Each structure stands twice: as structure tokens, then as C-alpha cells.
């Protein structure tokens, strides 16, 4: 297949490029580097099946030649308002990537009669009132809250994707991605995992926001990419959750990293740092992925962290 991947220079997009090239496909990467980095795809420069177009997906997209699939991953993705790459600091760009970017990429898929895959998110469930979250849950989102630029852009993107499927017959897919980690993730976007690993490596206390009883589950990037490829190759049109169902409190998660890295400074609770709208519980129900794609995560938390920590050391110059 010849596949367009938007957000190709980002964390997930670059892993997707690697995997699809390894599977023998031709990949056209697209990115404007607003939160991604050229380093993430620098190793692909000599690959004759890889090409790259620097472009903002909010503007009309032209890709010469026939495409068999379009994968729309371009969007700022970090919830941290203190981070320059966080979507609270890029509110208009976030809404444009989700709204105009999805419209433009769907247009490309329609014109090419290509399979279209939208990278959606667990954030479309908001601060969920149902637990764990099944794809049939409609969500609990504040339309004007801190996180709304991201949540509502992705909800609009899902609605537009289904409209193109129902009205134009485009062969669409939607993946709802839950928290994912691994090499090439942003090291300083202020999310829990990068904060905790950095703090532990520096021997500083790990900053747990609120009372630390809010829950998350963390999926290793290779597992996620495997699920996405299976979804791409399937005929599924309904949204599918992909994530690791091993739920834990943020305090437990911090303990695990503290022990593994051996920082020794323990945890510090910062009640005031917990943002309004921070989901209290989040866990994917992955029954659909299991039954429709034969997929489930295989990399445990400890194993995944052991594969990720060397990347952080290298990025922080702590080798
Ligand atoms: P990332 O910031 O590493 O990658 C996003 C990429 O999109 C960056 O390279 C950025 O430069 C590019 N981009 C953003 N706006 C663009 C635009 N207008 N035009 C062209 N390129 C643009 O983030 P990520 O974690 O790799 O996220 C990739 C996708 O997966 C996003 O759509 C995100 O919403 C989704 N997602 C990620 C997670 C996660 O845990 N990482 C969870 C849920 C959903
Ligand atoms: N968090 C924390 N300490 C930090 C950073 C984040 O306790 O240094 C908490 C945050 O309040 C949230 C959870 O960890 O409840 C996960 O946050 P993250 O930003 O990683 O992603 P989210 O799942 O909210 O998108």
C-alpha cells in the first residue's frame, strides 16, 4: 500500500512510519513540526519507500500519486498547560488540526478511494461517568473547559469521519487511543510518566497531583502500533479503544517508577496542581479490540518502562 501519515514526525506517527515501512509499504509522511521533531524521522531519510511533505494539515492537502490509505495523526496531544507543546497553549491549532485537518485528510481519502484511519482519543469520554469505558459510552465532556479544545475537536473529527463514511461511503476507521508511552515521547511536556521518570532519574521527589487516587492505564507504544495496524487492515468502521486495561492509581504508578529507577526521594503530593476536569478514573474496555482484531497488549508496565528509561537518559544527557 501507499500510505499518507499526518503527524509523521510525532511520537506515534514516527513509530507508525517505521512499522509500515518494515511491513513493506510505501509511506508519505506529513508534518508541520508544531510539536513533532525532524529527529524522529531523520533515520528514514535514505529509505526509498519514504517521502516527506512539510505541510500544515489545516490547509488544503495535495499529495501527488495514488494513495491506498490515509492515517490522520496530526494534532497537539499533551494536556499540560505549562508546556509549550501542550494543547492548552495551542488551542486554535488544536481545533484546526482536529476539524480542518480531518476535513482535508478525509477529502484526500475520498478522492483516492483510500482506507481512512482517524487517531482519536480516550479524551472524547471526558471525565467519564461509566467505568471502564466502552466504545458505546457517549462521554461526559465540558464543552468550554480547559481540555475542551482537544476533546471537542476529536469529537467533531469522529462525527465528520462517520459522516464521510455514511454519506460518501469512505472506508473509515476510528481508533480511540488511551495513554501510551515509549521512546520518542515528549520528555518535557509535563505529563505524569515523563515527569516521574525525569524526577526519579534526578533523585528528586515525584510530584503526585491531587490525592493521587485518580487512575490511568499505560500502554507501551509497540502494543498500540500493532493494534492500529490490525485496525487499518480490518474492515471495521466503528470506533475501537486501544490501550492497556491494567488500571492503577497515579500514586501507585509513581511508586512503581520510583522503585524501578531507584531515585530514593519518594513522592510529594501537590493537591493544588490537579487541573479542573482531570478525569478521576480512566480504563479502556478492550473487548472490541480483542474480539474484532484479536488484539491485546503484551508488554507489561515494568518491561515497557525498562525499554523507555534508556531513551530518557539519552535525551537528558544522563548516559
Ligand atoms: P505528537 O505531538 O508527538 O505528534 C503529533 C504530530 O502532529 C507532531 O509531529 C506535530 O508536529 C504534528 N502536527 C500537529 N498539528 C499539525 C498540523 N496542523 N499540520 C501538520 N502536522 C501537525 O503527539 P502523539 O502523542 O504522537 O499524538 C499523535 C496522535 O495520537 C494525535 O492525534 C493525538 O491526539 C493522538 N493520541 C495520542 C495519545 C498518546 O498517549 N500519545 C493518546 C490519545 C490520542
Ligand atoms: N500527574 C501527576 N503528576 C505529574 C503530572 C501529572 O500526578 O507530575 C497526574 C495528572 O493530574 C493526571 C495523571 O497524572 O491525573 C495523568 O496525567 P497526564 O498528564 O499524564 O495525562 P492525562 O491522562 O491526564 O491525559
Summarize the helices and strands and which ones pair or pack.
Elements: E1 2-6, H1 11-22, E2 26-31, E3 50-54, E4 69-72, H2 91-112, E5 115-121, H3 148-168, E6 172-177, E7 180-181, H4 192-201, E8 206-209, E9 215-216, E10 219-220, H5 221-232, E11 239-242, E12 248-249, H6 250-261, E13 267-270, H7 287-293, H8 301-315
Parallel strand pairs: 1-2, 1-4, 2-3, 4-5, 5-6, 6-11, 7-10, 8-13
Antiparallel strand pairs: 9-12
Bound molecules: nicotinamide-adenine-dinucleotide and uridine-5'-diphosphate.
| Helical proportion, percent range | 25-40%
Q: What small ligands are held by the chains?
A: nicotinamide-adenine-dinucleotide, uridine-5'-diphosphate
**Which structural class do the helices and strands define?**
alpha/beta
Q: What is the CATH architecture descriptor?
A: 3-Layer(aba) Sandwich
Contiguous uncertain segments of 5+ residues: none
CATH topology: Rossmann fold
Give the overall shape.
globular
| Gyration radius over CA | 19 Å
Describe what you observe in this structure.
- With 319 residues, this protein is of the alpha/beta class.
- It has one domain: NAD(P)-binding Rossmann-like Domain (Rossmann fold, 3-Layer(aba) Sandwich).
- Helices cover 35% and strands 17% of the residues.
- It contains eight helices and 13 strands.
- A seven-stranded parallel β-sheet has the order 3-2-1-4-5-6-11, sandwiched between helices.
- Helix 3 links the parallel strand 5 and strand 6.
- The longest helix is centred in the first third of the chain and has 22 residues.
- The radius of gyration is 19 Å and the shape is globular.
- It starts with a strand and ends with a helix.
- The model has no long low-confidence stretch (mean pLDDT 95).
- Uridine-5'-diphosphate binds next to helix 4 and strand 8.
Amino acid at each position: 500500500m501507499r500510505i499518507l501519515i499526518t503527524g509523521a514526525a510525532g511520537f506515534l506517527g514516527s513509530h507508525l512510519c517505521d512499522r509500515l515501512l518494515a511491513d513493506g509499504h510505501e509511506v508519505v509522511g506529513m508534518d508541520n513540526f508544531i510539536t513533532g521533531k525532524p529527529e524522529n524521522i531523520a533515520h528514514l531519510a535514505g529509505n526509498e519507500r519514504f517521502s516527506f511533505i512539510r505541510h500544515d494539515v489545516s490547509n488544503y492537502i495535495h499529495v501527488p500519486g495514488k494513495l491506498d490509505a490515509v492515517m490522520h495523526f496530526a494534532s497537539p496531544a499533551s494536556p499540560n498547560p505549562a508546556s509549550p507543546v501542550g494543547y492548552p497553549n495551542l488551542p486554535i491549532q488544536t481545533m484546526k488540526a482536529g476539524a480542518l485537518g480531518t476535513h482535508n485528510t478525509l477529502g484526500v481519502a475520498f478522492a483516492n478511494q483510500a482506507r481512512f484511519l482517524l487517531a482519536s482519543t480516550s479524551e472524547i469520554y471526558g471525565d467519564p461517568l461509566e467505568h471502564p469505558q466502552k466504545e458505546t459510552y457517549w462521554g461526559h465532556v465540558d464543552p468550554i473547559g480547559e481540555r475542551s479544545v482537544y476533546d471537542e475537536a476529536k469529537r467533531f473529527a469522529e462525527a465528520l469521519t462517520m459522516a464521510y463514511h455514511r454519506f460518501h461511503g469512505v472506508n473509515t476507521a476510528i481508533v480511540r487511543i488511551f495513554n501510551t508511552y515509549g521512546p520518542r515521547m515528549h520528555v518535557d511536556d509535563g505529563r505524569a510518566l515523563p515527569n516521574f521518570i525525569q524526577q526519579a532519574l534526578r533523585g528528586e521527589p515525584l510530584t503526585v497531583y491531587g490525592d493521587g487516587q485518580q487512575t490511568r492505564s499505560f500502554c507501551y507504544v509497540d502494543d498500540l502500533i500493532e493494534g492500529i495496524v490490525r485496525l487499518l487492515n480490518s474492515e471495521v468502521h466503528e470506533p475501537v479503544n486501544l490501550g492497556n486495561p491494567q488500571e492503577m492509581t497515579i500514586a501507585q504508578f509513581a511508586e512503581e517508577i520510583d522503585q524501578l529507577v531507584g531515585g530514593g526521594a519518594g513522592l510529594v503530593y501537590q493537591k493544588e496542581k490537579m487541573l479542573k476536569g482531570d478525569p478521576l478514573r480512566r480504563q479502556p474496555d478492550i473487548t472490541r479490540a480483542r474480539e474484532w482484531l484479536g488484539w491485546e497488549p503484551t508488554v507489561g508496565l515494568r518491561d515497557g518502562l525498562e525499554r523507555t528509561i534508556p531513551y530518557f537518559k539519552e535525551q537528558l544527557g544522563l548516559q
